[in-house]
Amino acid sequence: MGMNGTVPPGRRAAVVAGLRTPFVKAGTDFKDLSAVELGALVVNELVARSGIPPKEFDSVVFGQVIPSPTVTLIGREMVLRTQLPRSVQAHTVARACATSIQTTTDAADQILLGHSDCAISGGAESLSDAPIFATRALAQALVELSRAKTLTDRLRLLSTLRPKDFAPQPPALKEPTTGLTMGESAELMAQRNGISREAQDRVAYESHRRAAAAWEGGKFDGEVMHVPVPPRFERVAAKDNVVRKETTLEALAALRPVFDRRYGTITAGNASPLTDGAAALVLMSEDKARALGMRPLGFVRSYAYAALDPRDQLLQGPAYAAPVALDRAGLRLADMDLVDMHEAFAAQVLSNLKAFASKDFAAKELGRPEPLGEIDPAKLNVNGGSIALGHPFAATGARMIVQTLRELSRRNGQYALLTVCAAGGLGAALVLERE
Ligand SMILES: CC(C)(COP(=O)(O)OP(=O)(O)OC[C@H]1O[C@@H](n2cnc3c(N)ncnc32)[C@H](O)[C@@H]1OP(=O)(O)O)[C@@H](O)C(=O)NCCC(=O)NCCS
């Protein structure tokens, strides 16, 4: 967007409200809720809490990474299943784990252009409700069966199927080009960058310690709604259930590697877990926020997306995107009061941090004389990250934005950098500012 200095008066995109559901491990409290239901819950509650009359909204940009076959356009469903007027137009976007960074920059762009004044941005994910596919052979046979005219034709078709063709196919978190899972790719990054198991476990430990402290200190109370748990609705999910206050470095060290059982370093403890949840934001033009008497939590200052070959270091995208976003903001890493780096895996966080600080990486990969720099640990993921909080893919970006802006306000800070790595070798970076 190159927003710095080029924003028409009053068109700066303000984030005026944000909310998320608790993030819960897949297969637990939200196992009976679909992504679209989780999304509608959070949008409904966000609009109600914001106090903004529904008629003021003009657009919704929403995302879901693992699609539900029966919901082709989750963005529009966020209008049709909530109190928003049906005249609110909507679209769906996906950028893997950076999806609700994308929904936010889409909404911000529309505001900047003067096409929108008040938008919902966000995402929802249910890994409990992931689609299970039929094998290709079964799917083809079923399509042909529906066209077969005679019983003989049908029997002939069925006779071509083997027992293995009936096995259900769960979605794989695999890169289609490399055939490697995210975890396997992160293992390769750990090896290439010399990231030890111990260092990864320390990142995981800090993530849990800080997230637990944030919950205990009441920091998340204003940004996490309560969700009655179906089917009986006798209980309420009020907090993230991945965070482990009691986690110790010893307990983390005792876990077995998952993706490379013999030589690997990545465990269930230092990886983000499969998670269900939703998060949403309200964005407005600065003028509109002023007219409605809203106090912005902060503003989108700049952003950048970047990509590298997935056969290389799959989750290293932030190291390519962050320098561009900072340049576009006219700021340096040292100007940031907070940095929030999505934690897909501790190995990925540490690999990204190494690249941020590396003169060699800056010269060879970015063509820059100086590296971006080191991040003060006291400013990085201060209230925990996706390892401890969980990672419902499409909701993570919006979670990070609301969490960071509220912390920036507590600290009376001015600038924050957010980064997210994503499938396909993608990276996203967003610079937020207060006043
Ligand atoms: C890593 C992964 C396979 C683990 O799944 P899982 O086996 O269902 O994980 P669990 O939560 O059951 O944890 C396994 C064990 O580790 C333990 N554990 C997990 N985190 C722990 C922690 N912080 N401290 C102590 N123990 C921990 C659990 O208690 C469990 O122990 P148990 O077997 O005795 O019950 C799964 O989370 C995964 O696929 N993550 C990666 C997701 C991904 O690719 N994301 C993409 C990012 S872009």
Major sheet size, sense and barrel closure: 10 strands, mixed
The H/E string reads: EEHEHEHEHHHHEEHEHEHEHHHHEE
Q: Please compute the radius of gyration using only Cα atoms.
A: 22 Å
- Tell me the structural class: alpha+beta
Q: Tally the beta strands.
A: 12
Percent strand: 15-25%
Care to give the gist of this entry?
The chain is of the alpha+beta class. 35% of the residues lie in helices and 17% in strands. The protein is built from 14 helices and 12 strands.
Describe this structure as you would to a colleague.
By secondary structure, the chain is an alpha+beta fold. Helix content is 35%, strand content 17%. The chain has a domain at 136-166. It has helices at residues 35-50, 74-80, 99-113, 136-147, 151-159, 182-193, 197-216, 249-253, 286-291, 317-329, 346-357, 359-366, 386-389, 396-410; strands at 13-20, 24-25, 59-63, 89-93, 118-126, 227-228, 236-237, 275-285, 298-307, 338-341, 415-422, 426-433. A hairpin with a 3-residue loop joins strand 11 and strand 12 (426-433). Helix 3 crosses helix 14 (396-410) and helix 7 crosses helix 11. The longest helix is centred in the middle third of the chain and has 20 residues, at 197-216. It starts with 12 loop residues before the first strand and ends with a strand.
